[in-house]
């Protein structure tokens, strides 16, 4: 390279520096080239903007004559509008003056109208007074004519003016009669000219009240019919339910009281319970096949009588007793029999029994549990109890326990039917101890 450029005596390291300078020059040349391109683009943009401005200037010069014509037209329209506004102002002032004059005339007319109204009211009052006076005169004339005809009839004379004057005695008698009639008329008071209209209004009001009375009587009859139909349906439903409950009660009493008997009896509210003297049977007990729905032996009850239900129990080997004479366990079994008889007649999804077997001994608890198992597929029984035997027969146990730390907690366990007899005692002991 040094030989081609004509340099002599250049050290060996010079070519590397020239390469670096060449690269710098190339970079500078590329930068100058980019600047030149940018300057060319700027020149073209300025030329385009200049062309656009010249085109806009040309369009503006073309529009200048039209703008001048529009300006002249607007100035002429403004002058015309000013002139028209001045004319309207003049007309407005004239109308305002005319309106003030008209207002004054209207005020005067209103004053005249008020005066005329007052005069009309006065004339109307005078006219009403004159009409009342005329009516009184007509009434007096009518009374005088009636009196004249009556007097003429009594005297057998024609109701015409007499040819000769009356005597002094006749005149005095007539004067006394006139005084009596005048006093009677004063007692009657003034005649009401509006009596006929008031009578018509009163008659219309009475007819309206009569129509309302007929409507009320019709509605009352319909309501009484509806009440009677509703009472009939209620009575039929009660009779069906009572018959089913009575049959179920007799069957359940036979299960809970082996060898015993019981029945439900309808009694009227005025009647007391069946008398029981000594150990004798009440009326109707000797006939076990009698109708348990019979109200009383004295005769059929009226439809309006209220009836109640009486429970009769006869435990095995005992005379019939009232519920008040039964023991606590017998009362509990009777109540359970009545409850389950209603359940069989009107089933419900579930029942809550709270300490119902508390007064029962082990034998009666077994009977109660057999009753629960028998109907457990038809309803769900929730039993609140402290009896271990009842807990052992349960499918699921829930109890509250308190540990050594004094904190209460709920214990629950589901017991399979086959494992209930072996697994339930532990939970039952814990629940019974904690509940106690």
Layout of helices and strands, plus pairs?
Elements (H helix, E strand, L loop, with lengths): L1 H4 L8 H142 L12 H21 L6 H62 L4 E8 L38 E8 L13 H18 L4 E5 L7 H13 L5 E5 L3 H5 L3 E7 L5 E7 L5 H16 L1
Parallel strand pairs: 3-4
Antiparallel strand pairs: 1-2, 5-6
Helix pairs in contact: 4-5
Stretches where pLDDT is under 50 for at least 5 consecutive residues are: 1-13, 276-304, 419-436
Helix content: 55-70%
Strand order of the largest sheet: 1-2
The multimeric state of the shown protein is single chain
Order of helices and strands: HHHHEEHEHEHEEH
User: Whole-number average pLDDT?
Assistant: 79
Describe this structure in words.
With about 425 residues, the chain is mainly α. Helices cover about 65% and strands about 10% of the residues. It contains eight helices and six strands. The strands form three sheets. The chain has a two-stranded antiparallel sheet with strand order 1-2. The longest helix is centred in the first third of the chain and has 142 residues, at about 15-155. The model is unreliable at about 1-15, about 275-305 and about 420-435 (pLDDT under 50).
What is the compact description of this entry?
With 436 residues, the chain is mainly alpha-helical. 64% of the residues lie in helices and 9% in strands.
